[in-house]
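ingest -> validate -> predict -> emit
validate: passed (alphabet ok, no gaps, 379 aa)
predict: started
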Amino acid sequence: MTASPKSKETVNPYPMIAPRFWHGMTSSVWWSMLSRNRFRISPSKLHMAVIICFVTPIIDVLAFIQHLIHGRRIRQTKLAGPPIFVLGHWRSGTTLMHELLHLDEQFTSPSTYQCFAPRHFLLTEPWMIRFGNFLLPEKRPMDNMKVGWQLPQEDEFALLILGAPTPYFRVAFPNNPVPHMDSLGSKTFDPTKLDHWKRSVDWFFRALSYHTPKPLIIKSPPHTGRLGVLAEMYPDAKFIHMIRDPRKLYPSTMKLWRVLDEVQSLQAKTDPELLHRFVIESLHRMYDSFEIDRQKISPDRVIDVHYEDLVAQPIETMKQIYSQFQIGDFAPIAKKIEERQTTEKDYKTNQLGLDVETEKMVLREWHDYAKKYGYLDSK
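emit:
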């Protein structure tokens, strides 16, 4: 999400009703998730579960009303143009790329609220934007980037709330076996689950296009391993692949999930070894699939962008994307990027170092990624 200058963090006066992913779920998705995990909720998190149990029937009603009013028109809506997908491992710069593309008003992206309330955002978004900002902190705890209901967000959260198969369900029960790891790869995706996933993606994209009829910019790290599926679903889509030094990816991704687990989980503590194995395995699954899928797609549909290049030369890097994809006049966007740089000149990324043994582990476990993208001999 967008970086912000230093300021006092907004304090939510009602922390027990702070927005969690599960608040947007219908009763059927919520109770199905609890049942699959055998209701292994920590006592200290029971209040969260109780609140959500009261909220989900309200979501059911809102979802029914939205379907009644807008359902037919959503089904009949066609995408306004081929989507652009931002791919790459967590913490590889996908959020930064997403937000730079979002500066271009010819496109639209799913907002945080739309991703957290996919079943009823057509009804409730104006009210939440006007009255619900106090529920959010000013900055994300994992990287100090700005938070807001209207800022672009990754659609994987919407798929989670819709009940589509995604490993993001692990956030609720991080100490249980991670579900739907097969969904991180086109070839490993169970066919039955894949059909459910496709229907959820298609519905959400149509709902977004019905709301704002512009080509979509979609960002989701798990989509990296689904390149082949997405290329088949959207034959004219383009793909921006973000790359970053794995020695930066690993500690930043570990922090990301620890923070999400702390805020969102229904279990009190996350087993660090389970989290470590999830992070390591996820990259393997995504990139085993990505590299195979990429060979079957026209090279002009995919562009690699190193995070380091995007940070050092954002205008030159973005200009190259616009040129390759032929997506319009870049000059107005260059000006907006310059303005953004001026506004956020004081922003600093988290400095997360690795000890020698952890660095060796990362380069051993993610050797193929580091070698392919030129990080074995760099610091």
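The first strand starts at residue 84 and ends at 87.
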